[in-house]
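Thought: the user wants the 3D structure for the chain below. I'll pass the sequence to the structure tool as-is, report back what it returns, then summarize two notable features.
Action: structure_tool
Action Input:
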Amino acid sequence: MALVMPANEGPARATPRPAAELDLAVLARCRAGDPIAFRAFVVRYERPVFSLLVRMVGRGPHVEDLAQETFLRAYRAFPSFQVDETARPSAWLFTIATRLVLDARKRRALPLAPPRAADDAVSPRASSPDARLSRAELGRAIERAAAELSDDQRAVFVLAEYQDMSLEEIGQALGIPENTVKTRLFRARQQLRERLAGLVEENRDG
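Observation:
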Protein backbone atom coordinates (compact mmCIF):
# COMPACT_ATOMS: atom_id res chain seq x y z
CA MET A 1 0.00 0.00 0.00
CA ALA A 2 1.39 3.41 -0.92
CA LEU A 3 2.27 5.70 1.95
CA VAL A 4 1.06 9.25 1.39
CA MET A 5 1.84 12.40 3.35
CA PRO A 6 -1.29 13.26 5.37
CA ALA A 7 -2.83 16.61 4.48
CA ASN A 8 -1.35 19.64 6.27
CA GLU A 9 1.38 17.66 7.98
CA GLY A 10 4.48 18.75 6.09
CA PRO A 11 7.80 18.68 7.94
CA ALA A 12 8.72 21.68 10.04
CA ARG A 13 12.37 22.40 9.27
CA ALA A 14 12.85 26.09 9.81
CA THR A 15 15.94 26.00 12.04
CA PRO A 16 19.30 24.20 11.85
CA ARG A 17 19.16 20.60 12.96
CA PRO A 18 20.33 20.06 16.57
CA ALA A 19 22.80 17.26 17.26
CA ALA A 20 20.23 15.62 19.57
CA GLU A 21 18.06 14.62 16.62
CA LEU A 22 18.23 11.06 15.31
CA ASP A 23 21.09 10.23 12.97
CA LEU A 24 20.45 11.15 9.34
CA ALA A 25 21.30 7.64 8.16
CA VAL A 26 18.59 6.18 10.42
CA LEU A 27 16.10 8.77 9.18
CA ALA A 28 16.93 7.85 5.59
CA ARG A 29 16.23 4.19 6.38
CA CYS A 30 12.92 5.21 7.96
CA ARG A 31 12.07 7.09 4.81
CA ALA A 32 12.78 3.90 2.83
CA GLY A 33 10.35 1.95 5.03
CA ASP A 34 12.89 0.03 7.15
CA PRO A 35 10.89 -1.28 10.17
CA ILE A 36 13.99 -1.69 12.35
CA ALA A 37 15.02 1.91 11.74
CA PHE A 38 11.48 3.09 12.46
CA ARG A 39 11.55 1.21 15.75
CA ALA A 40 14.71 3.16 16.65
CA PHE A 41 12.85 6.32 15.65
CA VAL A 42 9.97 5.48 18.00
CA VAL A 43 12.32 4.68 20.88
CA ARG A 44 14.16 7.98 20.40
CA TYR A 45 11.06 10.19 20.24
CA GLU A 46 8.34 8.41 22.22
CA ARG A 47 9.16 10.12 25.51
CA PRO A 48 9.14 13.68 24.08
CA VAL A 49 5.86 12.94 22.31
CA PHE A 50 4.28 11.54 25.48
CA SER A 51 5.52 14.58 27.44
CA LEU A 52 3.97 16.94 24.91
CA LEU A 53 0.65 15.10 24.99
CA VAL A 54 0.50 14.98 28.79
CA ARG A 55 1.11 18.71 28.95
CA MET A 56 -1.62 19.27 26.39
CA VAL A 57 -4.40 16.98 27.62
CA GLY A 58 -3.45 15.50 30.99
CA ARG A 59 -2.78 11.89 31.87
CA GLY A 60 -4.97 8.98 30.85
CA PRO A 61 -5.40 6.19 28.29
CA HIS A 62 -6.17 8.78 25.61
CA VAL A 63 -2.50 9.84 25.72
CA GLU A 64 -1.29 6.43 24.59
CA ASP A 65 -3.90 6.41 21.81
CA LEU A 66 -2.79 9.83 20.60
CA ALA A 67 0.88 8.81 20.72
CA GLN A 68 0.21 5.68 18.68
CA GLU A 69 -1.73 7.69 16.11
CA THR A 70 1.10 10.25 15.96
CA PHE A 71 3.69 7.60 15.10
CA LEU A 72 1.33 5.85 12.69
CA ARG A 73 0.88 9.10 10.77
CA ALA A 74 4.63 9.70 10.87
CA TYR A 75 5.26 6.24 9.42
CA ARG A 76 2.83 6.88 6.59
CA ALA A 77 4.30 10.32 5.95
CA PHE A 78 7.99 9.37 6.04
CA PRO A 79 8.39 8.85 2.26
CA SER A 80 7.75 12.59 1.87
CA PHE A 81 9.96 13.67 4.78
CA GLN A 82 13.04 15.49 3.49
CA VAL A 83 16.17 14.07 5.11
CA ASP A 84 19.01 16.60 5.15
CA GLU A 85 21.10 18.65 7.57
CA THR A 86 18.12 20.84 8.48
CA ALA A 87 15.77 17.91 9.19
CA ARG A 88 13.92 18.33 12.49
CA PRO A 89 11.91 15.14 13.06
CA SER A 90 11.08 16.21 16.61
CA ALA A 91 9.37 19.40 15.42
CA TRP A 92 7.65 17.39 12.69
CA LEU A 93 6.31 14.89 15.24
CA PHE A 94 5.20 17.66 17.60
CA THR A 95 3.31 19.20 14.69
CA ILE A 96 1.45 15.95 14.03
CA ALA A 97 0.71 15.37 17.73
CA THR A 98 -0.47 18.93 18.36
CA ARG A 99 -2.82 18.89 15.39
CA LEU A 100 -4.24 15.58 16.55
CA VAL A 101 -4.98 17.08 19.95
CA LEU A 102 -6.53 20.27 18.60
CA ASP A 103 -8.66 18.37 16.09
CA ALA A 104 -9.86 15.94 18.76
CA ARG A 105 -10.69 18.79 21.14
CA LYS A 106 -12.72 20.52 18.44
CA ARG A 107 -14.68 17.29 17.98
CA ARG A 108 -14.95 16.98 21.77
CA ALA A 109 -13.36 13.55 21.40
CA LEU A 110 -10.98 14.08 24.31
CA PRO A 111 -11.78 14.29 28.04
CA LEU A 112 -11.51 17.67 29.70
CA ALA A 113 -8.96 16.53 32.28
CA PRO A 114 -6.66 19.41 33.22
CA PRO A 115 -3.23 19.13 31.64
CA ARG A 116 -0.36 18.23 33.93
CA ALA A 117 3.34 18.84 33.60
CA ALA A 118 5.34 15.81 32.50
CA ASP A 119 7.70 14.17 34.98
CA ASP A 120 10.90 15.52 33.45
CA ALA A 121 10.72 19.09 34.76
CA VAL A 122 9.14 22.46 34.94
CA SER A 123 9.94 24.75 32.03
CA PRO A 124 13.40 26.26 32.59
CA ARG A 125 12.11 29.60 31.31
CA ALA A 126 9.26 29.77 33.81
CA SER A 127 11.08 31.08 36.89
CA SER A 128 9.41 31.35 40.29
CA PRO A 129 7.97 34.79 41.10
CA ASP A 130 8.89 34.27 44.73
CA ALA A 131 11.86 32.47 46.25
CA ARG A 132 9.63 30.83 48.83
CA LEU A 133 7.88 28.75 46.22
CA SER A 134 9.54 25.35 45.91
CA ARG A 135 10.08 23.76 42.52
CA ALA A 136 7.25 21.29 43.16
CA GLU A 137 4.88 24.06 44.21
CA LEU A 138 5.76 26.05 41.12
CA GLY A 139 5.18 23.01 38.93
CA ARG A 140 1.72 22.47 40.39
CA ALA A 141 0.93 26.17 40.02
CA ILE A 142 1.93 26.14 36.36
CA GLU A 143 -0.21 23.03 35.81
CA ARG A 144 -3.26 24.75 37.27
CA ALA A 145 -2.61 27.96 35.38
CA ALA A 146 -2.01 26.15 32.07
CA ALA A 147 -5.32 24.32 32.53
CA GLU A 148 -7.06 27.70 32.35
CA LEU A 149 -5.53 28.59 28.98
CA SER A 150 -7.50 28.12 25.79
CA ASP A 151 -6.49 25.14 23.65
CA ASP A 152 -4.84 27.44 21.10
CA GLN A 153 -2.87 29.36 23.72
CA ARG A 154 -1.84 26.16 25.49
CA ALA A 155 -0.58 24.65 22.25
CA VAL A 156 1.62 27.67 21.51
CA PHE A 157 2.88 27.85 25.10
CA VAL A 158 3.78 24.16 25.33
CA LEU A 159 5.54 24.10 21.95
CA ALA A 160 7.56 27.22 22.77
CA GLU A 161 8.38 26.65 26.43
CA TYR A 162 8.75 22.88 26.64
CA GLN A 163 9.47 21.63 23.11
CA ASP A 164 11.87 24.43 22.15
CA MET A 165 10.23 25.16 18.81
CA SER A 166 10.81 28.52 17.16
CA LEU A 167 7.98 30.94 16.47
CA GLU A 168 8.29 30.16 12.77
CA GLU A 169 8.09 26.40 13.41
CA ILE A 170 5.06 26.85 15.67
CA GLY A 171 3.35 28.92 13.00
CA GLN A 172 4.00 26.18 10.44
CA ALA A 173 2.83 23.52 12.88
CA LEU A 174 -0.45 25.26 13.64
CA GLY A 175 -1.02 26.81 10.23
CA ILE A 176 -1.10 30.37 11.58
CA PRO A 177 0.96 33.52 10.92
CA GLU A 178 4.03 34.10 13.09
CA ASN A 179 2.49 37.30 14.48
CA THR A 180 -0.48 35.27 15.68
CA VAL A 181 1.93 32.90 17.43
CA LYS A 182 3.56 35.88 19.16
CA THR A 183 0.21 37.23 20.28
CA ARG A 184 -1.01 33.90 21.67
CA LEU A 185 2.30 33.26 23.42
CA PHE A 186 2.31 36.74 24.95
CA ARG A 187 -1.23 36.30 26.26
CA ALA A 188 -0.50 32.83 27.60
CA ARG A 189 2.59 34.03 29.46
CA GLN A 190 0.72 37.06 30.78
CA GLN A 191 -2.10 34.89 32.11
CA LEU A 192 0.39 32.52 33.74
CA ARG A 193 2.29 35.41 35.37
CA GLU A 194 -0.95 36.81 36.77
CA ARG A 195 -1.98 33.40 38.11
CA LEU A 196 1.43 32.79 39.69
CA ALA A 197 1.49 36.28 41.19
CA GLY A 198 -1.87 35.52 42.76
CA LEU A 199 -0.46 32.35 44.24
CA VAL A 200 2.42 34.27 45.79
CA GLU A 201 -0.02 36.69 47.39
CA GLU A 202 -2.05 33.79 48.77
CA ASN A 203 1.12 32.31 50.31
CA ARG A 204 2.07 35.64 51.84
CA ASP A 205 -1.39 36.10 53.32
CA GLY A 206 -1.29 32.56 54.66
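Final Answer: Structure generated. The chain has one domain: 24-205. Residues 24-205 form a domain with the Rna Polymerase Sigma Factor; Chain: A fold (CATH 1.10.1740.10).
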